[in-house]
Design a protein that fits this description.
Layout lengths: L1 H27 L5 H11 L5 H10 L8 H7 L10 H18 L7
Length: 109
């Protein structure tokens, strides 16, 4: 009996979610109902569009086993570093000056 009550509550919650989605979609001005959107998605599994086919093809590619060290060696970037030491030093100096200025007795800085 408890299983039937749980199933009934789950169906009731699902119906509530559909009603809430329908109210939200009508408030935004969209003309498609949640049930129509569901039907479109359900029929799309039989006739997928090009984006779905491309995603399925990308998901079907065999994964490559690669160690972290090898990955980092092969993807190293020899360009300019993201953090520049001079910029970082200047930022730290400004932060230090602000912190010293906030101490009692050092308000004149």
């Amino acid at each position: 009996m408890a299983i039937f009550v749980a199933i009934f509550l789950a169906l009731l919650v699902a119906a509530g979610v559909l009603l809430a989605a329908g109210a939200a979609s009508s408030a935004t001005g969209k003309s498609a109902s949640p049930l129509r959107t569901f039907r479109t998605g359900w029929s799309g599994r039989k006739n997928p569009d090009t984006d779905q086919r491309a995603a399925a093809a990308a998901a079907a590619v065999e994964p490559v086993d690669l160690s972290l060290a090898q990955f980092l060696r092969e993807t190293v970037d020899e360009g300019e570093a993201y953090l520049q030491v001079d910029d970082l030093a200047a930022t730290l100096q400004r932060a230090r000056d602000k912190a010293v200025g906030a101490l009692p007795g050092n308000r004149d800085r």
